[in-house]
Structure formats: C-alpha cells, structure tokens
Give the backbone structure.
Amino acid sequence: MATQHSRSAARLMMAPAVVLLLGWMLVPLIMTLFFSFKKYLPLRGDSLSNGLDWVGFENYARFINSSSFWPSVYTTLIIVGGVLVITVVLGIVLALLLDQPMWGQGVVRILVIAPFFVMPTVSALVWKNMFMDPVNGLLAHLWKFFGAEPVQWLSQNSLESIVMIVSWQWLPFATLILLTAVQSLDSEQLEAAEMDGAPYRKRFIYIILPHLARAITIVILIQTIFLLSIFAEIFVTTGGAFGTKTLTYLIFQRVLESQNVGLGSAGGVYAIILANIVAIFLMRIVGKNLDA
C-alpha cells in the first residue's frame, strides 16, 4: 500500500513531464489566441516589436465572411464522414475475414495493416501518379481494357478521390482495432447461438455487432481527431482545387495569400472550435459505449 511519502515522491517525479506537456499544449494555443487579435505580417518585414497592431475581432470577421469558409467546413465534414463510413464498414468486414483460419494468415494481416505506416504525402503521390493518372495510371489502363473512357479522378471526382485515398490509409487502423475486438469475442456464445439454429445474419446483429460497439466508438473518435486536420493528401493531389479545400487547407492558403499570421491564427481558432463541436457531438452520440 502506497504511503504519503511514496505518493509525494511519485508526484515530484511526474511534475517535470506534466509541466512539459502542459507547456507543449498551452504555449502554442496562447500564442494563437494572441496573434488572432493582431495584424502580424512577418513575411512583409514586420517584426514582433513594431508589427503587432491590435485589430480586435477583425481577423475573425474577415475569415468567417470569406466566401470559402462555409464550403471548406462542409468539405471537411464530408471527407471526415465519408472516411469514417468506409473505414468502419470495411474494417468490420476485413476483421471478420482475417479472424478466419487461412493459409499465410500472418502475412495477410501484415499486408492489410501495412498502408497505415505509409506517410500521407507518399500515399497521396502513389495514388496520384500510379493509380489515378488519366493517361498512365493503372485505373486508366483498366478502364481502357474494358473499353471505357478513363476517368479524370482528381478533377471530375476530386472529393471522392480524396476520400478514397484517405480511407486507404486509415482502413488498416480500423481493421486492427476491430480485429482485436473480434478476437476477444466469446466463441462459446457464438457456438451456442449456432446450435440453436440462429443464422449468421442474426448472430452478427445480436452478438458480434454489440460486442464491437466499443471498438467502433474508439475508431470513430480517434480517426475524427486526425481527419479534421487533413492537409497533406489535398496539398499533394489537388492543391485545394475542384472543391477539395478543407478548413485546414483554407487556413494555410489564407496565410500565404495575405501573409497575415493574425488571419491564419483566427482560422486556427475556428478549427479548434469546429473540432470541439464535433468531438462533443460524437461523445454524446457514441461515447456512451465506452462506459458499457
């Protein structure tokens, strides 16, 4: 049993890590809030001493009144929602398939999980040049083989292409989490239901799916946190054109166009607000599964 002295020693040893973590989180946030109320133009020669004119909420009003603001929020939510649906549905299917005994099961599992370890910029370049190129891409050759006209993926179906690329990268993560949950399922319960004559569809709906509820919740929450800040895939493939400009990309673009760090900081605050709204919504809808 821990004594008062040991607990005090533990707190003392943890203090540097806690202080470092709080500093790592709070200092950028405080600086973002500070700059959001200022007109700071470092790329135009302004310095911290003479280039911090107080503008109040002008940056916030300018950013939210931009014609690209609400479309970028809509695009962000569409990408997040599309990726979540694809990764959760296909993740369940792959988890159930990988749980079945097969030849070379270990190798197959490694191959399925491997895309998650590919950097976003690399995966986006591979999809852009190897698969979606309308002239030399593998999909273009496949379309020609069947006598169809190749699709201009990144211009005609740009949003769907981004969702496909990001889903390919995040599907292994969802599969890994869901496979772990599937393997923890009580096999005797499934065998008893099968002996009672329950078809596989009912076994899946009433036994397997409720057991996966917590794992699905974890996948949704973790992926949403990262997907709200998606940037590299869009920067490499479409450059924000053809309706693929997310809120994160809009912040990047506004800072480059206006060279105003204050304006970009205001956009960053809006991104934080959006992330918290989505997180609260998800916690209310699916977070209760974590307590089950």
